[in-house]
Amino acid sequence: MIENASALFNRITHGVYVIAVANGSEQNAFTAAWVMQVSFAPPMIAFSINHGHYSYKLLQASGACTVNVLGQDHLAIAVHFGRSGVKKKMSTYRWQAGKTVAPVLSDSLAYFDCKLSHTTDAGDHKIAVCEVIDAAELNTGWPLLYSQTDNMDGSSNLYKS
């Protein structure tokens, strides 16, 4: 067993993102911190997603998503989209159309509009590997780092001691 696992894993540097998905009129978004670039040609991004969540079902059905980069003043956005079971979760913030069916968070620093390439198992999550088909900077600022969110997601309770 790893002693103090939560604190040690917080030493891995990564940002905080909102992943948005849609299938027809159904839309959802969730907060993610496990996101990374995985290829230059073609440009690809991978992220971790809980395969039991509603967003995963929409991602599988539509094959598209956006990865929206949050800024340091977006902790409230991260908390909002980190909650499960919120009715009309998307109505609280402004969205715009991207090239895929997935919505783009207007307040984000930047976005990556993606089509799903494939998923693979990763413990209690899936890794979604996506090809970036469009991307743009929307607002200026510094990205929010996961280590700056304290225990926003309650992850420290998930490590077995």
TL;DR of this structure?
With 161 residues, the chain is mainly β. Helices cover 14% and strands 39% of the residues. The protein has helices spanning 5-9, 54-62, 75-82; strands at residues 17-23, 26-32, 35-39, 44-49, 64-69, 95-97, 103-105, 110-122, 125-137.
How is this fold's topology laid out?
Blueprint: H1 5-9, E1 17-23, E2 26-32, E3 35-39, E4 44-49, H2 54-62, E5 64-69, H3 75-82, E6 95-97, E7 103-105, E8 110-122, E9 125-137
Antiparallel strand pairs: 1-2, 1-5, 3-4, 4-9, 5-8, 6-7, 8-9
Poorly predicted residue ranges: 153-159
Number of strands: 9
Major beta sheet, strand line-up: 2-1-5-8-9-4-3
- What is the global morphology? globular
Name the CATH architecture: Roll
User: What structural class do the secondary elements suggest?
Assistant: mainly beta
What is the level 1 CATH name?
A: Mainly Beta
Task: Please summarize the sheet with the most strands.
Answer: 7 strands, antiparallel
Element-level helix/strand string: HEEEEHEHEEEE
The name of the CATH superfamily reads: Electron Transport, Fmn-binding Protein, Chain A
Give the averaged pLDDT, no decimals: 89
In what range is the share of β-strand residues?
35-45%
Instruction: Give the termini separation.
Output: 7 Å
Query: Helical percent range?
Result: 10-25%
Overall structural domain count? 1
- Our Rg estimate from Cα atoms comes to 15 Å
Number of helices: 3
Question: Could you list some keywords that capture this structure?
Answer:
seven-stranded antiparallel sheet, 161 residues, 9 strands, mainly beta, Pnp Oxidase, Chain A
